[in-house]
Write a structure and sequence with these properties.
Strand content: 15-25%
Mean pLDDT: 74
Order of helices and strands: HEEEEHEEHEEEH
Structural class: alpha+beta
Oligomer: single chain
Helix content: 25-40%
Shape: rod-shaped
Low-confidence stretches: 17-25, 182-192
Length: about 240
């Protein structure tokens, strides 16, 4: 009974560690060839550090087609479009891009802009609104052109989420090796080895206990058989003595 209790404790410990390591492995360590981009592990999420913007979360990676889907943790895709500079990276937008101009307009401005375009709420603030407009639009006097950039989509509140349009692709022909795993950070270090050694330890302890139980059982059987034989011999001697 004690042996079974110890095995149960060891198995529960193993499952706890497996659960912990599986949780950690939800954040796979990645790198990309010919790139200085930093892939980080934060709160079980893989993020990419873009120098021109900051961190974006890796949502998914596919190789056919080549596509890297990203999520903006700040929930402002058009701020990402405005700041993200992909020219020094191996990536480009997955979707075809079109030039759009970002305008910063006074909130007290006439309705000329707001009748045709919607302000980007996450990019606007008290006293001003930011619009994403066609670059051919004449800039009103109450607005200032911030930048004209090639981006996949203009702004629409129907398409306003933290990932719409944040798909990237690449030209390198490296297959699955593009996003290769590298030396794991601290939260991954030794995960597989730990689980492996604990599994081996549990197996060895279980085998020792089973062997010990089998040995004790055989020894008990031998003792019982010996005792039985001795009793039979005594009974036989008593029988012979009574016959005399």
């Amino acid at each position: 009974m004690a042996a079974l209790f110890i095995i149960l404790i060891l198995i529960l410990t193993l499952f706890s560690l497996l659960s912990l390591k599986t949780e950690s492995l939800k954040c796979p360590p990645l790198t990309f060839p010919h790139s200085d981009l930093k892939f980080l592990c934060k709160q079980n999420q893989t993020t990419i550090q873009f120098p021109s913007y900051g961190e974006l979360i890796v949502k998914s990676i596919s190789y056919n087609p080549k596509k890297l889907d990203l999520v903006d943790p700040n929930n402002c895709v058009h701020r990402v479009f405005f700041n993200l500079n992909l020219t020094l990276t191996p990536f480009r937008y997955y979707y075809a891009v079109k030039d759009f101009t970002y305008l910063n307009c006074s909130s007290s401005s006439p309705a000329l802009i707001s009748d045709s375009y919607e302000p980007v709420p996450c990019f606007s603030g008290p006293g001003f609104s930011v619009y994403v407009v066609d670059p051919g639009l004449e800039v009103p006097v109450f607005c200032k052109a911030l930048k004209t950039v090639g981006i996949p989509f203009g702004y629409s509140d129907y398409l306003d989420d933290d990932s719409f349009g944040l798909g990237l692709t690449w030209d390198l022909d490296c297959g699955h090796a593009c996003f290769s795993k590298f030396g794991a950070p601290t939260c991954f270090n030794g995960a597989h080895k730990t689980v492996l050694w604990i599994s081996i330890l549990i197996f060895m302890v279980a085998m020792v206990m089973i062997s010990a139980k089998t040995y004790c059982s055989k020894k008990m059987d031998m003792m019982n058989e010996t005792k039985k034989n001795q009793i039979e011999e005594v009974d036989k001697l008593l029988g012979d003595f009574e016959a005399l």
